[in-house]
Design a protein that fits this description.
alpha+beta; Tetrahydropterin Synthase, Chain A; 4-stranded antiparallel sheet; 23% strand; 3 domains; rod-shaped
């Protein structure tokens, strides 16, 4: 009886040991007698207890602590995470092509795509990736000047990703991207750069102020120009209207004089007189009126020839009496 119970418990225990549940986005590498046997997928998997054993993956790497200190982490886990992982590497000093010591730290995003290679091709995957990233970063930055380093983060990230992805391919790892977090030149260079940026901002401010003043002056000049044009156009129209009015007045006056001359000529023609002498006499008298209007004019001397003109007025007087 006890033997049967023992055997039943043993069977249940072996069955439980032979069942392995793998979660989604995880995998396990199984060895049989110390040799690679198979890779388990997510879900329920069956292995031979005590013969098949999961191979744990070793993780030893450095990370930045909450106070900025460097912390070494070591752990072993039989379950291999297939999700994208991120490493925040400690800051390191690199030398640019123009011999400036710069402090740089980077983030690396990678993913295990072949668990067998990650276990058997490299002893410690995270540490190898960390050292490779630091070495590659020094090489890439060493080919660039400080100014180029500060302004070409995307180029540096792209170069690092390409080099690291090729180098880690044999480890079953895919490097998705690399991001530089901080690029810190020495303090004296940062101070000089800050002064330069401040001077550049002041220069741009002066340029903007000058451009604004220039624009305002241009607008004011254009406004004055338009005002002058409008004023000149108004004066032109006024002069045209005035000239048209004067011309119309002269035309009407000329018509009236012509009508008067016609009537006088017809009247004088009945007396067989000379209408020209009459008209000249009228103009002469009008001129005399204008001459005697002056305040300093006391005496007006008439030429002898004027008597002939004035004598013609007598005939006109008789003509008017007859009419």
């Amino acid at each position: 009886m006890y033997v049967l119970i023992f055997l039943a418990v043993l069977v249940v225990f072996i069955a439980i040991k032979g069942l392995i549940i793998v979660r989604q986005s995880e995998t396990m590498v199984i060895e049989r007698f110390g040799k690679y046997h198979k890779t388990l997928n997510s879900g329920i998997n069956i292995i031979v207890p005590f013969i098949d054993q999961p191979r744990p993956i070793s993780w030893r790497y450095s990370m930045v602590g909450p106070r900025g200190e460097t912390i070494s982490v070591y752990k072993q886990n039989p379950r291999i995470d297939l999700r994208e992982a991120v490493f925040d590497f400690p800051k390191q000093n690199v030398i640019t092509r123009d011999n400036v010591v710069t402090e740089i730290n980077a983030l690396l995003y990678f993913q295990i795509i072949e668990p067998e290679k990650a276990l058997y091709e490299i002893e410690n995957l995270p540490q190898a990736i960390e050292k490779l990233t630091q070495t590659t970063l020094r090489n890439v930055i060493g080919e660039m000047d400080l100014d180029e380093t500060l302004s070409s983060r995307d180029t540096i990230n792209s170069k690092l990703r390409g080099i690291l992805d090729d180098a880690t391919n044999k480890w079953g790892v895919k490097v998705n991207r690399v991001e530089l977090q901080d690029i810190n030149p020495p303090k004296d260079i940062r101070d000089a750069m800050e002064k330069q940026m401040r001077a550049e901002r002041d220069r741009r401010a002066r340029i903007l102020e000058a451009e604004g003043l220039k624009t305002a002056q241009i607008l004011e000049a254009e406004g004055q120009k338009m005002a002058e044009i409008n004023r000149a156009e108004g004066e032109k129209q006024a002069a045209i209207l005035q000239a048209q009015g004067q011309a119309e007045a002269k035309i009407q006056l000329a018509r009236a004089e012509a009508e008067a001359i016609r009537l006088v000529s017809e009247a004088i023609a009945t007396t067989k007189g000379d209408p020209v002498n009459y008209l000249v006499a009228i103009k002469y008298i009008d001129t005399l009126k204008e001459m005697v209007k002056g305040e300093d004019t006391k005496t007006v001397y008439l030429p002898f020839e004027a008597t002939g003109v004035l004598s013609s007025l007598g005939g006109i007087k008789e003509l008017l009496k007859t009419n």
